[in-house]
Amino acid sequence: MTGDRAARTASERLRGAWRALTAGDVDLSVAVGSLRLANPVMTASGTAGHGDELQAYFPMGELGAVVVKSLSADPWPGNPAPRVHQSASGMLNSVGLQGPGVEAWIGEDLPRLVDTGARIVVSIWGQRVEDFAKAAAMLAGVDGLTALEVNVSCPNIEDRRRMFAHSPTATAEVVSAVGDACPTLPLWAKLSPTVADLAEVAGAALAAGAEGVTLINTLLAMAIDVETRRPVLGSGGQGGGLSGPPVHPVAVRAVFDVRAAHPEAAIIGVGGVMTGADAIELVMAGADAVQVGTATFRDPRAPYNVLGEMAAWCSRHGVRRLSDLRGAAHG
Most buried of 43, 78, 116, 300 (most Cβ within 10 A)? Predict the structure, then answer.
């Protein structure tokens, strides 16, 4: 297929997606725990900025929700450059959770994001349990927030920098502390796939008070420059996280397994969603909603495109309610 023909095909596909999305013949609304969202598509934390950066490309208020880049209680500088590396089929990043801190975000970024009409999910992180609790307490009672995503896929400096998400006990401690500090917002725990039993960690998060789990975070990975014989990312031997199409089958398996183990849990699927079909696959595995991340670096309109493509897929296949597809692969 020539470049011109490919461009025309893509344009025609998107026009069909817009028609399906605006026609209203498919009910895209979903329940995610106690929340009812107009549709299942969200941005993924870390890929859409802290505020209204994507509003120039599509109406952010028309997504199910917008998940902001993970925030710590205090400003955090992140890792040294280079922070991003294009791998053969995905992307490595070691941004290191750089952020302005919760107080600055509330004062500077949140008002602009509220003005877009978006439903806002705040992602938080910390290096100790009390760091999570502090960030959550700062968000308690803040207007305009829809949910709190607890990113436990970060290093616990009190446990040899082992990820919180690698331990059911540590995950539960964080979720419980956050719930106590911010009891008014639904909690989702964002988990790492690099564990022996993801369903066990998910169960610990749910038992500690999480309404749902976000599956998955990036895979631990590294790239080495064979000329310099050194890691390519500025984080050096710490490596980075692999995202994009290579992790999609991992995300599908994670969602499938956790849905089988926890039939009543709210599950948000994320990992390598580049198209509407990718998102539908996660829904069939058992996801209630999906997040679009790395695709946004290629095309900032990606989350909105995925939403339109999901509507078009349902319309073509005679699916009138997206929720009817939830967990369809389980038979």
Answer: 43
* 331 residues of the chain, pLDDT tens digit each: 555 555 455 555 555 565 556 556 899 999 999 999 999 999 999 999 899 999 999 999 999 999 999 999 999 998 899 999 998 889 998 898 999 999 999 999 999 999 999 999 999 999 999 999 999 999 999 999 999 999 998 888 787 778 999 999 999 999 999 999 999 999 999 999 999 999 999 999 999 999 999 999 999 999 999 999 999 999 999 898 999 999 999 999 999 999 999 999 999 999 999 999 999 999 999 999 999 999 999 999 999 999 999 999 999 999 999 999 999 999 8
Q: Looking at 124, 154, 213, 279, which residue is catalytic?
A: 154
Quick check: helix, strand or coil at residue 86? strand
What is the 8-class DSSP label of residue 270?
E
Q: Are 130 and 142 in contact (CB under 8 A)?
A: no
- To the nearest 5 percent, what fractions of the chain are helix, strand and coil? 40, 20, 40
Q: How many residues does this entry show for the chain?
A: 331
At residue 212, φ and ψ (nearest 5 deg) are: -155, 175
Query: Which domain does 255 fall in, by range?
Result: 3-330
Q: The domain that contains 62 carries what CATH number?
A: 3.20.20.70
- Work out how many domains the chain is built from and give that number: 1
Cβ atoms of residues 69 and 56 within 8 Å = no
Calculated CA dihedral for residues 41, 44, 47, 50, nearest 10 degrees: 100
From first CA to last CA, the distance across the chain in angstroms is 37
Alpha-carbon span 126 to 329, nearest angstrom: 36
Whether residue 182 lies in the annotated active site: no
